[in-house]
Write a structure and sequence with these properties.
Blueprint lengths: L2 H25 L5 H19 L1 H7 L2 H25 L4 H8 L2 H13 L5 H18 L10 H24 L4 H23 L11 H25 L5 H9 L1 H13 L5 H19 L6
Helix pairs in contact: 1-5, 1-10, 1-11, 1-12, 2-9, 2-10, 4-8, 4-9, 5-8, 5-12, 6-7, 6-8, 7-13, 11-13
Length: 291
């Protein structure tokens, strides 16, 4: 496939992920967050593992198991925290606060590689703080951040850690093998959290066609298709461009939330969302000129 086709595929994945915020918000009304993530990742691991079983058979070893487990713990924790947060905020706020991971990545990468952030990363961080402040503060400057909003920011930090680890591990490992292990471990993290903290969902809910449609969207599209496309696409598209295309997820999420969830976006919150998106653009596109 030519590079432009991979770019289109990444943008399509961002659109699917953007729509998933509304799907998950509705599904959380009947399935607790950790149980939902556990079901999603377990079925996804089985499907992707079956599709790529030859690759898994040829590459699976202790190193892939250990690295995939680390990725799975980071990814599983991020998704569980994000979805617990989504239960106490709107899809649009959840999506844009999650998008701040793009700004966090250079700083976490600094801790791992000792590569200092560029000037544009510092500007992006400042813009992101302003954007979150516009979202968080009411017209009377009172703090209106819910517990779900704070959990979403924590999830963004976990997603940033996961991205840094993927870049660290993928060069010396088979990406699809890591993906299968990551999905399986993410399922274990979510199901373990669910068993300790949540009541299992009522089996009667699975008689609803809407629940099955939501699970099909989350498992087949959001997990199986998008995670495979993301991992393969990032091998063919430069990292900055790939991250920018994937960050469109937040834009699609707000559009879906306004259309389907009837989320009210006030002018101040719209400016906050826009400032966060500009921060992502600055972080991914503007690079300091070197002498």
């Amino acid at each position: 496939m030519p590079q432009w086709a991979w770019k289109v595929a990444l943008a399509f994945s961002a659109a699917i992920w953007g729509g998933s915020f509304v799907v998950m918000k509705d599904t959380l009304d009947v399935i607790p967050p950790a149980w939902l993530m556990g079901i999603r990742f377990l079925v996804s691991a089985l499907i992707v593992g079956a599709l790529f079983w030859r690759t898994l058979r040829d590459n699976f070893d202790l190193s892939h198991l250990v690295m995939g487990t680390i990725l799975g713990v980071a990814s599983g924790s991020a998704f569980v925290v994000q979805n617990i947060g989504l239960d106490d905020t709107t899809p649009g706020r959840n999506a844009f606060l999650t998008a701040t991971y793009c700004v966090m990545v250079p700083f976490f990468n600094w801790a791992v590689t000792r590569r200092r952030p560029e000037a544009n990363n510092l500007v992006a961080a400042a813009l992101a703080i302003v954007g979150v402040g516009l979202v968080a503060l009411g017209d009377d400057l009172s703090l209106i951040m819910s517990g779900g909003d704070w959990l979403t920011l924590a999830a963004a930090a976990l997603f940033a850690v996961h991205i840094v680890l993927v870049a660290r591990f993928s060069s010396a490992h088979d990406v699809m093998t890591l993906t299968v292990v990551q999905l399986a471990v993410s399922a274990l993290v979510a199901l373990g959290t669910a068993a300790l903290t949540e009541t299992p969902p009522d089996p009667a809910i699975f008689s609803s066609a809407d629940v099955w449609l939501s699970l099909a969207y989350l498992v087949l599209l959001s997990s199986c298709v998008c995670m495979v496309v993301q991992n393969l696409g990032q091998a063919h598209v430069p990292p900055a461009q790939a991250s920018l295309l994937l960050s469109l997820e937040s834009v699609f999420a707000v559009a879906s939330s306004v259309i389907f969830y009837h989320e009210l976006v006030t002018p101040r919150i719209a400016v906050g969302f826009g400032t966060i998106f500009v921060a992502v653009l600055v972080s991914e596109l503007l690079v300091r000129r070197r002498d």
